Automatic annotation (TrEMBL):
SUPFAM superfamilies: FAD-linked oxidoreductase. This is proline dehydrogenase. Signal peptide: none annotated. It comes from Streptomonospora litoralis. The lineage of its organism: Bacteria, Bacillati, Actinomycetota, Actinomycetes, Streptosporangiales. Pathway: Amino-acid degradation; L-proline degradation into L-glutamate; L-glutamate from L-proline: step 1/2. Substrate binds at residues 97, 288-289.
Length: 307
């Protein structure tokens, strides 16, 4: 119930104004977001890349016009040039939301997003790194996978995200378990109806394990995006059982969450990648993180009413 309310608030402009103005917000946001600008984000990225890998997200989603989509492409182009120039591209890639590059624009949105994503991929190739397409709500999955297929024709290293809470994802994992594919498996962060998604945590976890089995047994490169200690352990067992060495898959976690565990995984010689968001469009991302953690919500709600 609370999760549903917060995820609805993530799309409300009234709630957005209230949350953005709350004094406590800056403090909580800085736990999950590396800074408002690229210059702010670079020191944390350099710190994290000392022992872990990174995927950088320039925050923003659901752009309303072509000029905003163009601004997103510019931001990624500048980011990728900086990664190439500084040498960070060896340990840092980027994550892109297609809705931030025009997927929902009324005329030819998917084509605009494809063209824009292609420009981001070309900048990544130039810098010597890779791109992963984030996955948004279930209405975008077919479109995102169609764009992915087009991009992979020119840039075979482009990664996909699949969400274990969707009923369709086991079948998608079978389709994406082939040689050359890079798949980030996560539980899923949106409020989805029971007609398309498992809503019970135990069912989502069971689906996650089934999907993981398929990806680990396949020939692609699984990216295990979860902070759930049980699933992290199962991923290792499955990887070992499938004869994957430490270079045959990677763990992924979000900036600001379970950092000690991130360091410990890296110290064991396993690949650990941290998703590092930055930028001033943090509202939707922040609300999804609140929705995942009831303890944060109680703290945040108390500060809103006592203000
Ligand atoms: P949970 O059962 O939610 O959490 C397990 C434990 O992790 C919790 O008990 C807690 O200790 C800790 N934890 C989890 N969340 C938080 C939090 N917000 N604050 C503090 N502690 C927390 N979702 C998408 O829909 N599309 C994407 O493209 C996408 N990309 C992702 C990329 C990465 C690298 C990661 C790690 C996640 C991504 N997600 C994405 C989010 C994902 O779908 C989940 O919503 C999120 O990871 C929480 O699920 P969990 O697997 O960590 O398990």
């Amino acid at each position: 119930m609370l999760r549903t309310t917060l995820l609805a608030a993530a799309r409300s402009s009234t709630c957005r104004t209230l949350v953005e103005r709350a004094p406590i917000t800056r403090h909580l946001v800085s736990k999950y977001v590396a800074g408002s600008t690229l210059a702010d984000a670079l020191p944390p990225v350099a710190r994290v890349t000392a022992d872990r890998l990174v995927t950088l997200d320039h925050l923003g989603e659901d752009v309303a016009d072509a000029s905003q989509a163009e601004a997103t492409v510019d931001a990624y182009t500048r980011l990728l040039a900086e990664l190439g120039r500084s040498g960070l591209a060896e340990r840092a890639e980027v994550s892109v939301k297609l809705s931030a590059v025009g997927q929902f624009l009324p005329h030819d949105g998917e084509k605009i997003a494809l063209d824009n994503a292609r420009r981001v991929c070309a900048a990544a190739a130039e810098a010597g790194t890779t791109v992963t397409l984030d996955m948004e709500d279930h209405t975008t999955v077919d479109s995102t996978l169609a764009v992915l297929a087009e991009l992979r024709a020119d840039f075979p290293w482009v990664g996909a995200v699949l969400q274990a809470y969707l009923h369709r994802t086991e079948a998608d994992c079978r389709d994406f378990a082939g040689a050359g594919s890079r798949v980030r498996l996560c539980k899923g962060a949106y409020d989805e109806p029971a007609s398309v998604a498992y809503r019970d945590k135990a069912e989502v976890d069971r689906s996650y394990v089934r999907c993981l089995r398929t990806l680990m047994a396949g020939e692609g490169y699984p990216m295990v995006a979860t902070h759930d200690p049980r699933l992290v352990g199962i991923a290792r067992t499955l990887a070992d059982g499938c004869g994957r060495g430490p270079a045959g898959y990677e763990h992924q976690m979000l900036y600001g969450i379970r950092e000690n565990e991130q360091r410990s995984i890296a110290a064991q010689g396993r690949r650990m990648r941290v998703y590092v968001p930055y930028g001033d469009q943090w509202y939707g991302y922040f609300m999804r993180r609140l929705a995942e953690r009831p303890a944060n919500v109680a703290f945040f709600a108390r500060s809103l009413v006592s203000d």
